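Ops channel
N.P.: pipeline sanity check, posting one input/output pair.
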């Protein structure tokens, strides 16, 4: 973050949703880490969002706001949520695409047990999208309709951090980091060049394979 601010006067960050990032966001909002973040220079975006309003318990924006964004000295005008609850999700995706910078300085991604990241699920047509950077998609879970960034956004990001937690992710971690394979099978392979932060249980099968 500091390097981006020094070079460009700002840092464009896209946050991950889901359960895994919440404790990370909570720690960033507390001393001593909170004092080390250049909040005044951050522009905050999101990698994906479910088709719910900002107050809904399934909203990625609400999770990030509760855990961090509303607890730090960050200008609310520089927080750009995805309005995925709009009836015309295609237009909402196009509008969000216009907000995104050409390159994100930092992209935070999570991973599901099936290897999906953002809302790019295995076999999804959006994995082949090259022109549009944000599209409406369908996924799994209690809210299937979503809006997500596409592969070109991940590929263009200056830095990527992948956060993975839980034993249910171990097989996908092993498959992604253990060898080559198609992104259609494991979309998280789009982020292999990133820095991966894994809990011990998520890394268990991969570590067993590398030590064998």
């Amino acid at each position: 973050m500091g390097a981006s601010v020094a070079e460009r006067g700002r840092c464009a960050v896209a946050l991950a949703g889901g359960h895994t990032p919440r404790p990370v966001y909570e720690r960033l909002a507390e001393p001593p880490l909170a004092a080390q973040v250049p909040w005044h220079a951050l522009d905050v975006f999101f990698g994906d969002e479910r088709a719910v309003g900002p107050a809904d318990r399934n909203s990625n924006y609400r999770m990030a706001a509760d855990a961090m964004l509303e607890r730090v000295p960050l200008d609310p005008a520089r927080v750009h949520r995805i309005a995925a609850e709009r009836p015309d999700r295609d237009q909402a995706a196009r509008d969000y695409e216009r907000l995104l910078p050409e390159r994100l300085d930092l992209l935070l991604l999570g991973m599901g047990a099936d290897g999906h990241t953002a809302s790019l699920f295995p076999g999804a047509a959006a994995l082949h999208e090259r022109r549009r950077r944000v599209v409406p998609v369908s996924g799994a879970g209690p809210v299937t309709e979503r809006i997500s960034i596409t592969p070109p956004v991940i590929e263009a990001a200056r830095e990527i951090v992948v956060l993975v937690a839980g034993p249910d992710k171990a097989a996908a971690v092993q498959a992604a980091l253990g060898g080559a394979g198609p992104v259609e099978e494991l979309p998280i392979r789009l982020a292999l060049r990133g820095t991966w932060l894994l809990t011990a249980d998520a890394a268990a099968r991969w570590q067993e394979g590398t030590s064998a």
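N.P.: looks fine end to end. Residues 132 and 156 are 13 Å apart (CA to CA).
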